[in-house]
Amino acid sequence: MLQLLHIQNYAIIDALEIPWREGLSIITGETGAGKSILMGALSLILGERADSGVVFNKDKKCVVEAVFKVSGKTVVRSFLEENDLEVQDEVVIRREIGSNGKSRAFINDTPVTLQQLQELTVMLVDLHRQFDTLSIGSSGFQLAVIDAMAASSRELAAYQKVFRRWQDNQKELLKLKEQQSRDSRELEFNRFLFQELEEVNLKEGDLEQLEAELELLTNAESIKTALVQINQQLREQDQPVIQVIRQLVQQLQPFTAQQKDLGELVERLHSVQLELADLADEADRWSDKISYDGERVMAVEERLNIGNRLLKKHGARTTAELLAIQVELSEKLQSVVALDERLNQLEDEVKLNFDELKAAGKKLSALRTAQATPLMKQVNQLLHRVGMPNASIKVTITPVEPALMGMDNVDFLFDANKSGQFAPLRKVASGGELSRLMLCIKSLVAGKVDLPTLIFDEIDTGISGEASRQVGLIMKEMAAARQLICITHQPQIAGRADHHLFVYKQEKAGQIQTRIRSLSESERIRAIAEMLGGEQPSAAAMENAREMIQSP
């Protein structure tokens, strides 16, 4: 419920603070007094974009602040928690506009975006202006009315859950099919590349070992010659090195007893002799192993050529990189197989989802269809009350392809003159007819769902007399369970108010400003009498006004 509206430095309002109460609050005032300005300020609270032109005094900012009582509204509490906003029994919404047009929005003193503001305020206020009657012709609005009257929120939620799952699976299926199309173009090429690598049967370090082996085979003769020379120099020359060192050891050996240091020298010479002998043996063994093998050279060169061609082809530098590419190709080929399996599985899931969707949609459609006739009957009865005895609506529900809101197209058709010729509302109903029809429909919906604060801005245009009285009665009935605010020029509606606010202009310091005040009962009688009979109402007008206020 809206508890307080504070407006500062907006249009021709210097400062206003308007308290609000439960029930039916009526706002009246002469044309141009500023009633539309109040609605403009309230629209800022609801998230409309700001215009620097509304700033009254360019030396300071414009501030519009509203306080809502939200205790017991779980959807509002959930919104505040989800957006990390302070949770209280009151919600304070503030808009600030600078002279440069820059605007800021706050919820409970925390800065928020306009989108967040709009998401919250739609739970708090339903503002209906005269031009908003166009929305009644939209299929979305008409579908929402049917669902509200049918109390089908649970069935709609169940349908939407299945629909989103079906839609998500369809999107994934389409995505996988596109991937399959791309993969199929690459499949044969990847399979060829993989088989080419698999046939070579490379092992870790293969090409590097082959390079080393080829280097050895290519230089086999030179290496063998060098090894033979080592063995010859050490053992087979006229004076082999090993034999020379052995003789030196023998010459020094007899003197080791007299000179201890010579014994160490002899030991060292003997160690050198043994090491050289071992070197000669090792060179001999290597010499026996190494030999030029032309066939092996050709085999190694052929395998290396294949390996180098693959390295160049894949932009690799080592055997390890080629093996990694082979693994990657294998995974791609396996993923194609897995993709086919997932596609088959997903196609089955989509088919199952669609069967579930049709079942849920059929259940939802049944509820909507069952409500069509009762809704027509109730709306037509209300149309008669508001001065449209010859008007009637027809509700048609036709099947359509599955969508988020169901598998039905709802259309409200209208006949203003009992002609039997029904046509879409937006094509045949006048503004005044749409306004009254909207009121009738909202009054019915209000009895089914927890609507927020309802605000009607001059939707009574084009009616008078008994029709106005009936509109007032309908509003009074609606206000019994919720806060309802109405700007009106009709005395029959004003007479039904629980609270009557009067908007007027006042000159202050040479400037015209909009003001608003709450009327006492005697002031209400005077104001309604003036609406009936002009600025100088007659005694009859005063008595008529008194009866309007006091009549049940």
What is the gist of this entry?
The protein is an alpha/beta fold and 552 residues long. It has 17 helices and 15 strands. Among the domains are: 1-124 and 484-519, 3-Layer(aba) Sandwich (Rossmann fold), CATH 3.40.50.300; 206-317, no CATH class.
Describe this structure in words.
Keywords: ATP-binding, Coiled coil, DNA damage, DNA repair, Nucleotide-binding. One of its GO terms (molecular function) is ATP binding. May be involved in recombinational repair of damaged DNA. Belongs to the RecN family. It is a single chain. With 552 residues, this protein is of the alpha/beta class. Among the domains are: 1-124 and 484-519, P-loop containing nucleotide triphosphate hydrolases (Rossmann fold, 3-Layer(aba) Sandwich), CATH 3.40.50.300; 206-317, no CATH class. It is built from 17 helices and 15 strands. The protein has helices at 35-45, 74-82, 114-121, 139-150, 153-200, 206-218, 220-236, 241-252, 260-289, 294-314, 319-385, 425-428, 431-446, 465-479, 491-494, 521-533, 539-550, and strands spanning 2-10, 13-19, 24-29, 62-69, 90-97, 103-107, 110-112, 125-129, 392-403, 406-415, 423-424, 453-457, 484-487, 499-508, 511-518. It has a six-stranded antiparallel β-sheet with strand order 2-1-4-5-6-7. A six-stranded mixed β-sheet has the order 8-12-13-3-14-15. Strands 9-10-11 form a three-stranded antiparallel β-sheet. A hairpin with a 2-residue loop joins strand 14 and strand 15 (511-518). 30% of the residues are buried. The model has no long low-confidence stretch (mean pLDDT 84).
